From TrEMBL:
Superkingdom classification of source: Bacteria
Gene that this sequence comes from: lptA
Role description: Involved in the assembly of lipopolysaccharide (LPS). Required for the translocation of LPS from the inner membrane to the outer membrane. May form a bridge between the inner membrane and the outer membrane, via interactions with LptC and LptD, thereby facilitating LPS transfer across the periplasm.
Example GO BP: Gram-negative-bacterium-type cell outer membrane assembly
Transmembrane segments: none
Protein known as: Lipopolysaccharide export system protein LptA
Intracellular or extracellular location(s): Periplasm
Chief location category: periplasm
Domain (Organic solvent tolerance-like N-terminal) ranges: 30-139
Signal sequence range: none
Similarity remark: Belongs to the LptA family.
Amino acid sequence: MKNVNLVFATLLLGGHLIAKESDFAEKVSVAAVKQIAEMQDNRITFEQDVAITQGTIKIKADKVVVSRSGEKGAEVMTAYGQPATFFQILDNGKPVNAHGNSIRYELKNRLVTITGNGQLKQEDSQVNGDLIRYDIVKQQMIAESKAPNQRVKTVFLPDQIENFDKPTDRKNQGK
């Protein structure tokens, strides 16, 4: 059953989530109530009502820790919240929403990892799991559950599978 869910998840999101490339050329902005900079550790912590934007990417959380391993552009942002949220508009114009207890965003690797009560949703289709990893470059999504008695849950509408790579018709969105 786990493999079947992985196949459905791949059909649902894996091959059709094409990130908006222009987002990655944009600056990353972070706003919060409090900021703590630890220069020797190459770490900045943002607390209380944290909002991160990069193009159409929006991350909201209670706390975000940004660390850099020394290489410029290799920042890793880990957002914590109840829940922490991730939003992006894809190249096809369709929004993707995700949330979990934590969201790790590796800027250089373009990797998003959602842990704890994770959910990745596009329109009425969604994937839920303890761990959801989305590799933006490879356009690959992996969802898994940690406990043997828990399952990855995938919900999708068959007509949406056929139309994932087509632009959203904004005139018909309200219907």
